[in-house]
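Postdoc handover notes: sequence design on the structure in folder B. Input tokens:
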């Protein structure tokens, strides 16, 4: 809309009611008195080129959000609203990968709407995160997930869990399934309780001990996928099924 000489520009367009997608979004600690993290303010001002006074959205990362006008301390201009949590929480665990692949996986799973992202080690993993390095790597994944959630206007941050082991996952979670080329279908016709937590093995595949751990195995493609591709594929399938797209 172009403002006339006697008319101020409207900060938000009405598309049948405001939504959390009406402008760039940032996470803040308080919706009542929002303050941007320094790196978020820099990104908005220098990368996105958002001018002071232009519309944005602030969110608490737990589903609540409100409209605001951009500044170092954004000015709230709307009521607090909430995006309700989806009906089923979805989780994807992936065996640790080399290089920046874990970051790519965390980014894409966040964009797809996965609620829990669980890095783990397995028998054939070539990568091990331990001690201070492990803490740094997990923190890096959390930063990636946060940035991805802001970019895709997601008001609920996913939980990126501490790196664990396959054995610990097996005992701490009652119903994960493992992705394996020899498994059955991910979704069986008439299945009233489709899987909500899928584990993706390492590039070297599952060991015999892991295959015999008593978990159901599922096939997600007719051919072998790279480990990072498999993680994102299963995330897309789980989210599409939960959200009614297939």
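Designed sequence:
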């Amino acid at each position: 809309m172009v403002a006339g000489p006697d008319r101020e520009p409207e900060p938000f367009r009405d598309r049948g009611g405001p939504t959390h997608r009406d402008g760039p979004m940032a996470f803040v600690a308080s919706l009542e008195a929002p303050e941007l993290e320094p790196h978020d303010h820099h990104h908005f001002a220098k990368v996105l080129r958002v001018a002071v006074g232009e519309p944005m959205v602030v969110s608490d990362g737990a589903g609540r959000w409100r409209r605001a006008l951009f500044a170092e301390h954004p000015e709230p201009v709307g009521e607090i609203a909430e995006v309700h949590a989806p009906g089923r929480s979805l989780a994807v665990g992936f065996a640790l990968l080399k290089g920046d692949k874990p970051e790519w996986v965390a980014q894409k799973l966040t964009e797809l709407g996965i609620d829990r992202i669980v890095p783990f080690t397995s028998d054939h993993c070539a990568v091990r995160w331990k001690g201070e390095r492990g803490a740094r790597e997990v923190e890096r994944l959390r930063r990636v997930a946060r940035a991805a959630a802001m970019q895709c206007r997601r008001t609920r941050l996913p939980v990126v869990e501490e790196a664990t082991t396959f054995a610990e996952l097996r005992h701490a979670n009652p119903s994960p399934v493992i992705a394996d080329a020899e498994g059955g279908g991910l979704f069986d016709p008439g299945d009233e309780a489709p899987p909500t937590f899928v584990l993706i093995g390492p590039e070297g595949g599952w060991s015999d001990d892991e295959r015999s751990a008593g978990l159901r195995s599922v096939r997600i493609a007719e051919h072998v996928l790279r480990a990072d591709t498999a993680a994102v594929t299963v995330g897309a399938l789980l989210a599409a099924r939960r959200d009614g797209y297939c």
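Context for whoever picks this up: Residues 131-151 form the longest helix (21 residues). Don't rerun without checking with the PI first.
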